[in-house]
Specification:
The structure holds 2 protein chains of 2 kinds. By secondary structure, chain A is of the alpha/beta class. Helix content of chain A is 64%, strand content 9%. A 6-stranded mixed sheet of chain A has the order 6-7-8-3-9-10, with helices on one face. In chain A, helix 2 runs antiparallel to helix 9, helix 3 runs antiparallel to helix 5 and helix 5 packs antiparallel against helix 10. Classes of the chains: A alpha/beta, B alpha/beta.
């Protein structure tokens, strides 16, 4: 669900915020400067149009003659054509600027996210991170490129109109200008109110979306509880709130525009009265009066545009802060400079210096608590896992079974104590070195959009098609893959959702085999898989465990029984530890977990046996 | 989403007709608003006329070109000379007209907003209520994401149409009618010139957006692809890290990021050309009026004041016409959204027959020759016959897909048995003749993977009752053996569950759902494998307390655990949609059937325990 919008720390224009984002804007500096110049020219041309009108009135209409109208028309036409060219050019430049700022920012955030630690991902919903990378950067690019265009044009237009008016008639110009401050104050007042209200509307809107979500996902449950009408009455409260807020916002808008129109008509009144007397006294040409009326009517839109543009810039500061906050988030797990010096960093590893890994892992006086708070979940934990050992971790859903794996894989580091790999603290080597030696198969295996082949190749980018086929055969995934429509070139769909869980697992096993890791982690699926696939998977697991140090986050008895050491987790803590037999004998939590799973599998096995015998 | 063929034949117009349904009782508001709005436009068009009069007849010496009563009025106060001395009087009219136009504009817009927002409110509420009342099978068939999309994005498109585009279209039409009739009354030739540009501009902008819709789509898709790639990277962060594939991911990202940016830049080029040409055409419209207006004025066909009015009116028309074209091109988008919404609305709601009853449901439950098939492909229940005596406990043992959950769904009338497929009776009454809501408030069900709402635990447990007294809630939570766990949360019963709050473990969820069902106090209670996630000790604890709490009710227990089932008064073993065994625990243990085999294996765990000793 949407995360509530962060309220910006700065309510006013803050140069400090913009300074932070400047490095991302400066590459398109020259485009922005070009746009600036183009807008100045465009604004001057726009100012000249009422002057054409003035010329027509004073030279043709008042004098009742049309000599020179052809030249007048041609000139007007040329100016118009020139303006067209300018518009085409400036909008190209603005678009290039917008997209490039967005592109550079997106890249920077994405690259930075590749370095951030796991705890960041654990604490931050994916939707929230996605919004930083996509919508915030889009908005920054858009406002900088187009907001700037609008403001610069409007600013030059307003200033130009003032200059033009002053040059035409100083006194009359002053009369129009007196109205401007009123409009400015009213605009700022209304903009603020509307902005605040719009924020509230967005909040109600996301509440409404959430309610729709619940109403749909929970519809079946609502039926069994007979609470459909109650849900509807709760929902209609939210829609009513939405109605009230939207009407309020319309009222503000509907009030604002007539008020501005009123002031602009006051300006026209001034011009008409004062100018009329001047014309009667022959102190002013009629054409000039008409130009003044055009200016007086036309100046207020640009003033609103400036106000709106500035408000946009201030509002965008919130987006900038969100992006820069992300960019300034330091990864909690970092390789030391010495380590980077020797082994290289994530993006440019020095593989030639990497030691071969054997796979012995030792937890030595490890204390651990998650960075987002809470109690210690490990207190002075010691465990030596010889290379090639299989460790099973069991416990209820949500009991915190992944903690140990997170530590062993250095997705998190111990709060105190150390973890040794082949006898050496793993912080003395690079993260990438360790990660390159880990094979990870997830509960609900994650595949990337693309083909089966591409997904398996993820395990080793240098693998040939032959290697991929071989890996698939080793884990018996080849039959399943060959039965797919396009074999190895079949599209797996977004997140692999075109495949069944069992198929996804087999492919992720092949991916792990291809990586040929020394350490293997399996987070077993809880969902039921048909018995045939189940057999294939068990066979694949046996193959993977062979000769590797393994961690199994296990549910199925067949998997648990493969383990050399079993760790039992409850409420985040390791409460029991030992072999299967030892733990059963102890009749503790393991016993009851085992019993539960045993009962479940017993039923299924008898039924499926009776099915086969038929 | 399923559409039947009659709907597909509906024309676009019919899609928009759907909106009428939601504007019931609002049409008066709409008509009044439109009238007020046109008054506002009329007055805004009167101002240039004041300028014309001032220029021509006050400052200049042309006769007053006004209706006779107005001329009489001016003459009675002193005519041109008086006005010349009091020019401010003319100016005051400008302000008065501006104020009238402004005030009417305000009421017109607010009225329109009240109309359109009320319509959308009706649409949202109808949609939500309809979804609540749709058949269970509809919810099983349709994807949540797709429905939400229709309820939010598509409704937003419709809202934009009703609230903004619709009003804008009416405004533009009135604008055209008023300005053109005023212009034609002054000078036909000039009006024709202005008129010529109107279809050109509308067709140009409308046609342009229709033409580049494909490009917009491609660019949107590129953004979608980039967004999906980024999202996959985040959700798959463990895989990326575990294989050390950051550099590779950045490479993939760059490719998509570049495609996306370049597509938009190209689109920007096209848009820039469109804006440029659009400005040019509008500029030509202004130019034509000025040049031809000048010529007309020079030849004395119009006055200077009329020339000014023409220029001003023309300027007032330029923008509305341009956006009108764009709105027209987006009508098809609205029509698509309306169609998608209509597909939900035309799905069938659950409907009780008028003669359905609300009988006492304390009687025996009886399945007679029940056959059932969800999709007409594979029968799920075959010839099921059994009776559950009122007040007894009935156990069902079966594998995944054996049909045990279907029995629950049928008993709760989530699905209805078709005619000639046997019948289900409670106290002798066919449940198809009992109101659905009555059946469901008399049959309490706990599912294996229960859904909890994103509310507090207290609200979740008390969701079906008006009485949310905490003592009552706690009493039922205790009965479901979950009170202790809840009290351990820092917020206790006010802990919010779900995405915005605390994640409960599978077992805790099941127990909260049990408490939620118990509070309904139904004569029939069904536990559909609802203790699967709790361990054996807790299971036993809950069963004991359930026994105390359900003494008067008929209980149906579905489980794979013999220890759970063995105390039932009657146990049925279901395999592949058929009853294979039925009897009490001791009876079944005497047979050499599935029940005994499972009991033996489950019992053998004790042997295994012996072995390890």
């Amino acid at each position: 669900m949407t995360v509530d919008e962060k309220t910006p720390s700065q309510k006013n224009f803050s140069p400090a915020v913009w300074k932070k984002i400047w490095p991302f804007i400066s590459p398109v500096k020259k485009y922005l400067i070009a746009v600036l110049i183009l807008m100045m020219i465009t604004a001057s041309i726009d100012i000249s149009f009422p002057l054409f009108q003035k010329y027509a009135i004073d030279n043709f209409i008042t004098k009742m003659q049309s000599n020179g109208i052809v030249g007048f028309t041609v000139l007007y036409f040329l100016v118009l054509a020139f303006q067209t060219v300018l518009v085409v050019i400036f909008s190209r430049f603005s678009m290039v600027a917008e997209m490039n700022i967005g592109k550079v920012l997106k890249r920077a955030t994405f690259v930075h996210l590749q370095k951030l630690s796991f705890s960041y991902y654990n604490q931050t919903p994916v939707g929230y991170i996605l919004a930083r990378v996509m919508s915030d950067t889009n908005r920054i690019g858009g406002v900088v490129a187009w907001g700037l265009t609008d403001i610069v044009w409007a600013l030059f237009y307003v200033i130009g109109v003032f200059i033009s008016m002053v040059l035409l008639d100083f006194k009359l110009a002053l009369l129009v200008i007196t109205v401007v401050p009123f409009i400015a104050v009213i605009t700022v007042y209304f903009q603020n109110k509307i902005l605040k209200l719009n924020r509230e509307i967005r909040k109600v809107n996301s509440e409404m979306t959430g309610d729709f979500n619940e109403g749909i996902v929970g519809a079946r449950t609502s039926k069994t509880l007979v609470i459909e009408e109650k849900n509807l009455s709760e929902f209609s409260q939210v829609t009513s709130k939405m109605y009230r807020k939207t009407i309020q916002s319309t009222m503000l808008n509907a009030m604002y525009i007539p008020i501005v129109t009123f002031f602009s008509s006051v300006a026209v009144v001034f011009v008409l009265t004062k100018g009329g007397y001047m014309v009667m006294d022959n102190a002013l040409q009629l054409g000039t009066l008409s130009a003044f009326i055009s200016y007086a009517l036309g100046i207020f839109d640009p003033i609103q545009q400036i106000a709106r543009g500035l408000a946009d810039f201030v509002a965008t500061q919130a987006n900038i802060e969100r992006v820069t906050d992300l960019l300034e988030t330091e990864p909690i797990i970092k390789d030391t400079p010495e380590v980077i010096e020797k082994y290289g960093d994530t993006l440019s590893p020095k593989r030639e210096n990497w030691e071969k890994i054997n796979g012995e892992i030792e937890f030595k006086h490890v204390w651990f608590k998650y960075p987002d708070g809470g109690d210690y979940v490990l207190e002075d934990f010691n465990l030596k896992i010889p290379a090639g050992t299989t460790v099973a971790i069991v416990g209820e859903t949500g009991a915190g079974k992944s903690t140990l794996v997170n530590l062993a894989c250095r997705f998190f580091e111990p709060t105190r104590g150390e973890i040794l790999i082949d006898g050496k603290d793993y912080r003395e080597r690079s993260q990438l070195w360790l990660h390159s030696n880990i094979g990870y198969v997830l509960q609900n295996p994650h595949l990337f959009s693309g083909t089966v082949k591409e997904n398996i190749r993820y395990g080793n980018l240098n693998a040939t098609d032959e290697d991929i086929r071989h890996a698939a055969e080793l884990v018996s995934a080849d039959k399943v893959i060959n039965s797919m429509e396009n074999g190895y070139d079949s599209d797996v769909g977004e997140g692999g959702d075109r495949l069944s869980t069992g198929e996804k697992q087999l492919i992720s096993f092949a991916r792990a085999v291809l990586a040929d890791p020394r350490i293997f982690v399996l987070d077993e699926a809880t969902s039921s898989i048909d018995t045939q696939t189940e057999e294939l998977i068990q066979h694949a697991i046996s193959h993977l465990l062979n000769n590797r140090t393994s961690f199994l986050i296990a549910h199925r008895l067949s998997t648990i029984r493969k383990a050399d050491i079993i760790l039992v987790v409850r409420a985040g803590k390791i409460i029991e530890q030992g072999t299967h037999k030892e733990l059963l004998r102890a009749k503790g939590h393991y016993y009851s977990l085992y019993r539960k799973q045993f009962d479940q599998e017993a039923g299924e096995s008898v039924f499926s046996a009776s099915e086969k015998s038929k | 989403m399923s559409t039947n063929s009659t709907e597909q034949k509906k024309s676009n117009g019919a899609q928009f007709k759907m909106l009428l349904r939601f504007s019931k009782g609002l049409k008066g508001k709409f008509i009044i608003s439109v009238i007020i709005m046109s008054i506002s436009i009329l007055f805004s068009y009167l101002n240039p006329q004041v300028i014309r009069l001032t220029v021509d007849s006050v400052i200049g010496d042309k006769p007053f070109n006004l209706p006779q009563f107005a001329v009489d009025l001016i003459n009675s106060i002193g005519g041109r000379i008086y006005l010349r001395q009091n020019l401010i009087l003319c100016a005051v009219f400008v302000v008065i007209f501006a104020v009238i136009s402004g005030v009417t504009n305000y009421y017109g817009r607010v009225g329109m907003a009240q109309f359109s927002e009320k319509l959308i409110l009706n649409l949202r509420n109808t949609l939500y209520g309809h979804i609540q009342r749709l058949e269970y099978s509809w919810h099983v068939k349709n994807q949540t994401g797709d429905i939400i999309q229709r309820c939010t994005s598509d409704v937003d498109v419709v809202r934009n149409f009703v609230a903004n585009q619709c009003m804008e279209m009416f405004r533009t039409i009135f604008l055209l009618i008023i300005s053109l009739s005023l212009m034609f009354s002054m000078n036909v030739k000039l009006s024709l010139i202005a008129l010529v540009f109107i279809p050109i501009v509308i067709v140009y902008s409308g046609g342009f957006f229709a033409m580049i819709r494909k490009r917009f789509q491609t660019a949107d898709e590129a953004e979608g692809a980039l967004s999906a790639m980024v999202q996959e990277n985040f959700t798959g962060v463990r895989v990326v890290r575990a294989f050390g594939r950051q550099a590779y991911e950045i490479e993939r990202f760059d490719e998509k990021n570049n495609t996306f940016s370049n597509l938009w830049i190209k689109l920007g080029y096209v848009l820039g050309a469109y804006w440029g040409v659009g400005d040019f055409v509008s500029g030509m419209q202004v130019l034509s009026i000025i040049v031809f207006g000048t010529l007309e004025a020079v030849s004395g066909n119009i006055t200077l004041g009329e020339f000014l009015v023409f220029v001003l009116y023309n300027n007032m028309l330029v923008w509305p016409i341009r956006s009108f074209g764009r709105i027209l091109s987006e009508l098809s988008k609205t029509s698509v959204s309306l169609k998608r919404i209509d597909e939900i609305l035309s799905a069938k709601e659950e409907q009780d027959n008028p003669d359905d009853t609300t009988p006492d449901m304390n009687g025996d439950i009886c399945f007679e020759n029940v056959n059932f098939d969800y999709y007409g492909i594979r029968p799920v229940l075959k010839d099921i016959n059994f009776t559950i005596k009122a007040g007894t406990t009935f156990g069902i043992l079966g594998s995944t897909g054996s049909g045990k959950s279907t029995i629950v769904a049928l008993l709760d009338r989530l699905y209805d048995l078709p005619e000639n497929s046997g019948k289900i009776t409670v106290g002798g009454v066919d449940i198809r003749k009992i109101e659905r809501s009555w059946v469901r408030s008399n049959v309490g069900v706990v599912l294996q993977e229960p859904f909890l709402f994103s509310k507090t635990i207290r609200e979740n447990i008390g969701v079906s009752t008006e009485d949310d007294d905490l003592r009552l809630i706690r009493r039922f939570a205790q009965a479901a053996a979950v009170d202790d766990s809840i009290m351990n949360f820092s917020e206790g019963y006010d802990t919010i569950v779900g995405e915005r709050g605390v994640t409960l473990s599978g077992g805790q969820k099941q127990r909260v759902a049990i408490a939620r069902m118990l509070i309904q106090n139904t004569p029939i209670k069904v536990f559909d494998d609802s203790l699967s996630a709790v361990d054996a000790e807790t299971d036993a604890k809950i069963r004991k307390s359930l026994k105390e709490n359900t003494s008067n009710s008929t209980v149906i227990l579905i489980s794979h655990r013999i220890t759970t089932l063995m105390q039932a008064d009657m146990i049925m073993v279901l395999d592949d949609g058929k009853i294979v065994e039925m009897g009490t625990h001791s009876e079944l243990m005497k047979k050499d059937g599935i029940y005994k085999k499972i009991a033996d294996i489950q019992g053998s765990m004790e042997n295994e325990l012996e072995e390890v000793r």
